[in-house]
Amino acid sequence: MLLYSMCLQQRAALWGTQQPVCIWPIPSALLWLLYCSQPSPHSPKTRPLFHSAWSGCPLPAFWCRPCYWSPSSTPDPRTAHTKPRIHSGSWHSWKKRGTAMGNDVTQAQLSNWVAPLQDGTAAYTLLAVCPTSDAVLRAALQAASQAQAPLLIAATRNQVDIDGGYTGWTPQALMDRTEIICASLSEAPPVITCVDHGGPWCKDAERNAGASWHEAKAGTQATLRAALDAGYRYVHIDATIDPHRHGPPPVSDMVDRTDALLRWTEAYRRENGMPHITYEVGIEEVAPPDVTDPSKRLEAFLTQLDATLPSDMAPTFVVSDVGTSFGTGQFEAAHAQQVVEQVRAHGALVKAHYSDFVDALDAYPRCGMGGANIGPGLSAVEYQALRELEALAKAIDATPTWHNALRNALVRSGRWRKWVDHDGAFDALDDETQNRLLETGSRYVWADPEVEAARTELYDQVARYRDADAYVVWRLRSAVEQMLHLLNLVGRADMEAAIA
C-alpha cells in the first residue's frame, strides 16, 4: 500500500496532476497493475494496460520498461533518457536499439500492412524510398518517425551492392547505417529494407560489359546473398531486361528467369534458417513502344508464374505500367484501377515505380495502389537545396565549387546517357535537359570524393548563416512527410489504427 501511494505521489509531482490514492487492502500485485494502467494526461493514445511511464516510479528502472507510444514525435520529458524503440515482435511493442533493422519486420507482420489493402478494408499506399544518399536516408527515417508511419527502404543493385554501388554502401553497411540513424530517433519507425530491381542486367556494369545470362544471374545471386545475409526481408526480382535481344524479352523468358531467381532465393533463405521474405515481381514499369497490349502481357506473365510457383512463394507485389514514367507527373488513374483489379485477382498488390514527380499522388490510395517507389525525385530535392546554399554562399562573396564539381563528376561517370537518346557531348544538350539530368542524376555522384569535398567546402562557407546539413535534411524530410500524408500513411505504424 505504501508503495502504491508513493508511486501516485511521484506521478502527481512529476505530471502536475492529482491521482486518487487507494486505501483499500488490495494485494500489492493488483495495486501495481492498477498503477501501471493509469493513463498519462499528456498521452491520449497511451494504451490502458501495462503502458505506463516508469520514470516517475520509485522502483529501479529494470523492474519494468516503457512500452507506450505518443502520437507526437517530440521526446517525452519523462522518458527522454531511455533508449529509442524499434518495432519488433508485434506492431504494438517497441524494441530498444541494437538489432538489425531488417529483422524487425517479419513476413507475418508485413501481412498486417498488406491484408487490409488486399481485402479493400483500408486505403493507403506503402512508400518505398531509394537510399540515394545519407541525407535522403536520414530524412526518410526522420519523416517516418515524425508521422508514425511504416517505411520501406528500397535499394537497387546500382545503389547498394557488394562493390559499394554508387552510394558506397554494401548491403550490410546500409543496414548498419539505418540502425544507427534509428537509434538516434526518439521513436524509430518500422522499417523494411528491400532489394529493388534485383535481376540480371539491372546493374549498369553488367549491361555495359555485355554479360551473358549466366554471368548476370551469378551477379544477381551474389547481390541477393549479401542482402539476405545483411537482414533484408523484401526482394524485387526483375527479369525485364535482356540486352542481347532487340526489344523486350518474351513473357516466357521473364517467367522462367523470375521463377529461377525466386527458387534460388527461397532455397538460400531456407538453408540458412532465415525468416520469410516478401517478393515483388512484374513486367516493365513503363510498357515498351512495341508492346501493343500491356494488359494481355501482364495477364500472361501472372498466369504462367502462378502455374509454376508454389503458393508459399507467391509474390505480394507486382510492378506494372500505370502511366508513370521518369520525369513526368502523369498517372493514369482509370488504367491503374484496372491493373489493380487484374493483379488483385492473382492475390497481389500493384507497386508503381517512377512515382517521384506524380502530380496526384493522393490518387494512389483511392485507386488501390499497394506501393510507390521514390528515388530520383528526392535527389532533385537535395540538389535544389544545395543550389540554394550555393546562392547563399555567393551572396556573402564566397566562391563555391560544388556545382562545377557535381557537373564534372556526372559527365565523367557517363551515367546520364541512359536517360537520353543522345550520342554527343553533355554540353550539346539544351539547358533544360542538362538541368534535369543534373537534378536527378546527382544521385550517381553524391559519394564522389570531389563532390563530397566541394560539398564540405560549401557547408563551411555558409556555416555562419545556416546549418547547411540540417537545412538539406529538412528540405528532404518535408518532401517525404508530404508523401506520407498524400499516401495516407500517417499513424499507420500502429496497425490497430491502420486496420480500423
Automatic annotation (TrEMBL):
Region forming the signal peptide: none
Q: Which InterPro entries match?
A: Aldolase_TIM, GatZ/KbaZ-like
Question: Might you name a Gene Ontology BP term for this protein?
Answer: carbohydrate metabolic process
Source organism of the structure:
Longimonas halophila
User: By what name is this protein known?
Assistant: Tagatose-bisphosphate aldolase
State the organism's lineage. Answer: Bacteria, Pseudomonadati, Rhodothermota, Rhodothermia, Rhodothermales
Pfam family of this protein, just one? Answer: GatZ_KbaZ-like
For this protein, the record's Gene3D superfamilies field holds: Aldolase class I
Q: Which domain of life is it from?
A: Bacteria
